[in-house]
Design the sequence.
């Protein structure tokens, strides 16, 4: 169908200004300027500055974790996590339903990603399919808590324990999620989280690595600073993975409003659920038992036959009225040219991931989005379904 057709159908729901999938909630500019004043005065811009140290302490308190290292982004945090565990070759089992950063971090570490199919409910790596993929070359498991939904941690850990493999969680989406009363980022041998502009808690660019001993935290801190221990000694082949004072300053301010951001997103998620629940062909994810979500994303699956339109048509139609959902994560990483030749990238081996990637659509969700806007997005979706049914 043409865009003009959508114009007629959806005219009443069109937005004047674009509604993106997400948008960071920023502190007042004056507060940021005030905090930067201290940076200007000290002329100390990076390398474990005062604000960096303060943000690390505040994050440890907020997340109730003992060992956390700030990094310049989530991708470098993944690279450092692999180095920290000395994983530099072989295979690591991961999910194809993720952002490119996950397999790319493996590839950059000369590790072959081995793609494991996902669970149809959580969209996370399916532990039942994990064990068959383990070979003598397997060095670790790298699951992703997609959209902040907890992986099946017990089942993954059981497989890891049977085979003596470390588990690194890509918890890029999971800031603020609690599982069994504990921060989700605190599970696994190591976990990384992203503080990118598109994330619930942001430093602009940034990330962190959560570890479980003073020794590992120290090792990570060396690795993110070229391996430098002091002016005379370099202990490891490290990298520059440091967070600057400018980013840490933003983080200190955005951290103050994270709880409020989660509360706002929870209310908006409720609006989406109430309006879209029961629409034939729309599958809304269910909340995980024992988890307190962070409402980072609102993902739906669209079954073409039952809804009457494909996910791609719904996406195009919404875009025609200035609503910009995202197909996170389509295409699957296993479809990228750099990975499609891998045996584990075969479409037959990944049936659930293939289907979910064809059906998924993340609708706009961020604290500054109004309830009225969410209702309008839902009305547009209803209009599309009614039209398709007719
Ligand atoms: N692992 C996983 C599972 C991840 O999802 C990610 C990142 C990582 C690892 C790596 O972490 P980092 O190295 O990035 O810290 C975005 C983000 O760039 C990326 O961080 C994130 N995942 C991914 C899910 O989303 P894009 O390509 O979709 O971003 P972009 O530029 O299209 O932005 C999406 C929307 O966000 C825009 O339409 C509007 C809004 N936006 C974006 C930016 C950059 C803003 O309002 N302000 C902004 O500054 O990847």
Sequence:
């Amino acid at each position: 169908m043409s865009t003009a057709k959508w114009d007629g159908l959806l005219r009443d729901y069109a937005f004047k200004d674009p509604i993106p999938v997400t948008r960071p909630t920023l502190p007042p500019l004056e507060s940021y300027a005030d905090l930067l004043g201290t940076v200007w005065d000290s002329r100390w811009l990076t390398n474990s500055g005062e604000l960096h140290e303060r943000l690390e302490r505040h994050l440890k308190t907020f997340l109730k974790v003992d060992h956390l290292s700030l990094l310049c982004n989530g991708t470098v945090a993944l690279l450092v996590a692999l180095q920290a565990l000395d994983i530099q070759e072989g295979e690591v089992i991961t999910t194809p339903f993720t952002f490119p950063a996950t397999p790319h971090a493996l590839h950059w570490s000369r590790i072959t990603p081995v793609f494991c199919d996902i669970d149809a409910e959580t969209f996370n790596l399916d532990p039942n399919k994990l064990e068959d993929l383990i070979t003598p070359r397997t060095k670790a498991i790298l699951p992703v808590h997609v959209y902040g939904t907890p992986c099946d941690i017990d089942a993954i850990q059981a497989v890891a324990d049977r085979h003596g493999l470390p588990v690194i969680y890509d918890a890029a989406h999971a800031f603020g999620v609690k599982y069994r009363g504990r921060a989700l980022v605190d599970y696994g041998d190591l976990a990384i989280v992203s503080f990118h502009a598109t994330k619930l808690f942001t430093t602009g660019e940034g990330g962190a690595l959560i570890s479980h001993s003073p020794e590992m935290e120290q090792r990570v801190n060396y690795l993110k600073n070229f391996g430098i221990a002091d002016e005379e000694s370099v202990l490891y082949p490290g990298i520059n993975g440091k967070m600057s004072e400018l980013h840490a300053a933003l983080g200190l301010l955005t951290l103050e409003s994270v709880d409020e951001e989660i509360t706002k997103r929870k209310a908006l998620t409720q609006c989406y659920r109430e309006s879209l629940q029961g629409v034939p062909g729309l599958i809304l994810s269910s909340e995980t038992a024992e988890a307190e979500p962070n409402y980072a994303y609102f993902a739906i699956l669209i079954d073409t036959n039952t809804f009457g339109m494909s996910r791609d048509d719904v996406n195009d139609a919404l875009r025609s009225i200035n609503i910009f959902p995202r197909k996170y994560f389509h295409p699957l990483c296993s479809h990228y040219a750099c990975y499609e030749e891998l045996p584990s990238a075969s479409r037959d081996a990944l049936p659930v991931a293939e289907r979910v990637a064809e059906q998924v659509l993340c609708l706009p969700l961020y604290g500054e989005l109004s309830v009225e806007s969410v209702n309008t997005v839902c009305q547009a979706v209803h209009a599309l379904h009614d039209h398709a049914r007719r």
